[in-house]
Design a protein that fits this description.
Length: 364
C-alpha cells in the first residue's frame, strides 16, 4: 500500500497533513514570481514544508486511507505505522527518503531532518493548468542618438584643465562714469543758479563766485550805536526820527546789484525822479557818527566789500564806502549818507529804483 499518494492527494484540499509519529506536511500560499536571470514566469502555488514536531494523530490521513482502500480505521493505522517504520529505516540507512509527488527527506550533518519539496507539482487548485513560461529577453532597437550617447559615455574622459574664466573689462561702467559725473556737475551748477540768483545775461553764468564764505550774508540789518551812548529806542526818539513798520530793516538779497546806466536813465516809476549821485548826495563823512546811511550790502570778506564799493564808484556813487559793522561782525557798505532820517527816507526809493536791489537805512 502506497501511503505517500494519499498524502499528496490530501495536500490539494488541506493546508496540513500529519503522519502520526513521523511529522506533518504544511503548505502556505506563494505569489507568482519572475526569475530575472532565467526569464521565467512562475504562477502562484502552494509551498510545502515539513514539521517533525507535528506527530499527534488527527485522523485525517487514517480516514483517507480507510475510505480509499476500503479498510477499517485500525487497518489504516497499521498501514501508516508500517510506512513510518520504512521511512525511518531508509533515513538511518541511506540518510534520505523520497515521498512521491511531495518531496525528499534527508539528514543534515547535525542529524536534523531537512525537507526539499517537489517543484513539479502545484497544489494550488486556483492555478490549475498554469505552468512555468520561459520568456526570451526583448531586444529593442536603440535610437541613434541614444546609441551615440552610450558610446560617448563609454569613452574615457579626458582630464579637463582648470583654467580661470576670462574677466571681461567693464566697458559699460567706464562709459557710465563720465555720464554720471556730467549729470552731477550740471545738477550742482543748476542748483547754484537758483540759489545764488546769478546773472542770466552773462554768457558764462557758471563763472560767478560760488564760495560760500564770500557770499553776502542775508542777515537783518541792526541799528548799531557806540558803546558810550545808550541804545536808542522808539520811545526815546522824536516822532520825526521814528522808523515806521513799513521802513524797517529789509534782509539783503544774495546777489550783487545789476549794473544799470545812471546818468540819463529813466526810473521804473514815473513818480520817482532820477538823481545824479554826485550832485544830489550831501557831503557827509563816511565815518561820522549820527549819520543815516543807505546800506547796499553786508560782507564777511574785506575783498568783497571793496569790490562792491568800486562798482558803486564806477556807477557814479562816489560817496560809497564801508561805514560800520553789524552785530554779526559783517562789513556794511553804504551808498551815501544823510544828516537826518527824513532825507534818508525820502531818497531811499530813488536809490532802490536805480540799483534794483534791496536797500535799507542804518543809523551809526
Amino acid at each position: 500500500m502506497k501511503v505517500d499518494k494519499h498524502i499528496s492527494s490530501l495536500l490539494f484540499d488541506h493546508d496540513c497533513v500529519i503522519v502520526p509519529e513521523f511529522g506533518g506536511f504544511v503548505t502556505r500560499y506563494k505569489h507568482a514570481q519572475v526569475h530575472p536571470v532565467e526569464h521565467q514566469l512562475i504562477p502562484p502555488s502552494k509551498h510545502v514544508a515539513f514539521n517533525a514536531r507535528l506527530k499527534n494523530n488527527d485522523g485525517l490521513l487514517a480516514n483517507q486511507i480507510a475510505d480509499s482502500e476500503a479498510l477499517t480505521y485500525a487497518q489504516a493505522l497499521a498501514a501508516i505505522t508500517t510506512f513510518v517504520n520504512e521511512c525511518n529505516n531508509s533515513l538511518h540507512k541511506n540518510s534520505r527518503v523520497t515521498i512521491d509527488a511531495v518531496g525528499t527527506l534527508r539528514f543534515d550533518p547535525e542529524q536534523n531532518i531537512q525537507f526539499d519539496p517537489d517543484q513539479s507539482v502545484n497544489y494550488l487548485t486556483s492555478s490549475f493548468g498554469l505552468t512555468m513560461v520561459q520568456s526570451p529577453p526583448v531586444k529593442r532597437a536603440e535610437p541613434a542618438s541614444v546609441a551615440a550617447a552610450v558610446v560617448q559615455m563609454r569613452q574615457p574622459l579626458k582630464p579637463v584643465s582648470e583654467s580661470k574664466p576670462k574677466r571681461k573689462f567693464p566697458w559699460a561702467a567706464v562709459l557710465l562714469l563720465p555720464a554720471v559725473g556730467l549729470f552731477m556737475w550740471v545738477s550742482y551748477q543748476t542748483f547754484n543758479i537758483y540759489k545764488n540768483k546769478l546773472d542770466y545775461g552773462n554768457l558764462n553764468p557758471f563763472a560767478a563766485d560760488t564760495n560760500i564764505k564770500d557770499r553776502i550774508r542775508t542777515d537783518e540789518a541792526v541799528m548799531v550805536v557806540p558803546e558810550n551812548n545808550p541804545a536808542p529806542t522808539q520811545e526815546n526818539l522824536p516822532e520825526s526820527e521814528k522808523i515806521t513798520n513799513s521802513e524797517t530793516v529789509t534782509p539783503l538779497e544774495t546777489k550783487l546789484p545789476v549794473e544799470k546806466p545812471v546818468l540819463g536813465a529813466k526810473p521804473a516809476d514815473e513818480n520817482v525822479k532820477a538823481i545824479t549821485p554826485a550832485t544830489n548826495a550831501p557831503a557827509v563823512l563816511a565815518g561820522e557818527t549820527g549819520t543815516y546811511f543807505i546800506i547796499g550790502g553786508c560782507f564777511e570778506v574785506d575783498q568783497n566789500a571793496t569790490r562792491l564799493v568800486k562798482k558803486l564808484h564806477q556807477k557814479g556813487f562816489t560817496n560809497a564806502a564801508v561805514v560800520d559793522t553789524n552785530r554779526n561782525g559783517l562789513l556794511m557798505v553804504a551808498i551815501t549818507g544823510f544828516k537826518s532820517l527824513e532825507e534818508a527816507r525820502a531818497q531811499l526809493p530813488n536809490y532802490r529804483a536805480q540799483l534794483d536791489t534791496a536797500l535799507w537805512v542804518h543809523r551809526k
